[in-house]
């Protein structure tokens, strides 16, 4: 289960940069090198300008300590505010640097890396406050060196304002991008979950249709045959045994079908290279054995059909003839497979009692529909192939079920 982490509001708190992000290590290395170079340059200038000054050893020692402390400074936190000890480190480091600037104002030039560190380790308001204080300190130090030079008075605030604005803007942009990435990840996970649910529902529908078109219809036929055998057992034992034998054959075929659709294989009648025409002929023969004389015929020039089309048409034929046996009260039926150029059409016609398609709620076929199988299952199969199912019927005038599938895509 995906749990979305709460992100800080962009305007409320400054989000420190994540260590390990692309470019962060390079910027840290550049800042460390720049700070050390500026310290060395300022110390060299101090030694040249003030040879033999009594506080020279202190300046050298403090310069070395600051250089090492900055190179080994604590990294910015990966997430959330920095630990309190990093703020203590920054306070002590800034105080030591300020003491060095008081002794030698030239060290004020090394303030830029400190500004960068403050922006990374502190919240936005605290960081900008410290930057402002450092800027004032730098201006005072520059005035001590060069006097009231307007460039040295206005230059550091302008540079500090520009650098801080760019840094804050980049950090906010980074946070927005991070938020977009998190949203995209959440969306991708949501889509994956939806696809899994859709796959589960599709598989459930497939199994439902397979069970209806094979096991359920076979069990219904077995029940009818066994009931017929029971009725004539005492009168005509031979006929009764024939019904039982037919029911046994249906049970054997159902077992084979069950094993195959559990493994998502082709229907048993299409296995081992069997053609759709052969499978439909077997369906007609079995229907005849169960009491409805059923003929199979083909029309048009035969063509090779994709396995999915053959399996779907066979399942439609099995479902339609099962409805004929169970609901139609027919004595005859015809299964016709017609090849029409790029199309193939399967018709199952019977001479049964028929029904009014507009008032399907009053018919036995409607009861089968309400259970979510029968005609709806046939339609679902054909929709997966962009095919179409039509039903023509009238009360007392039989029923024709037609399945159409486009086999060859148009230009």
From TrEMBL:
The UniProt transmembrane annotation reads 29-48, 55-72, 92-119, 126-145, 151-170
Report keywords, A-Z: Kinase, Membrane, Transferase, Transmembrane, Transmembrane helix, Two-component regulatory system
Q: Pfam families, alphabetically?
A: HATPase_c (PF02518), HisKA_3 (PF07730)
GO function terms (MF aspect): kinase activity
Q: Which residues form the Histidine kinase domain?
A: 206-409
Domain of life of the organism encoding this protein: Bacteria
Q: Return the protein name.
A: Sensor histidine kinase
Write the lineage as a comma-separated list.
Bacteria, Bacillati, Actinomycetota, Actinomycetes, Kitasatosporales
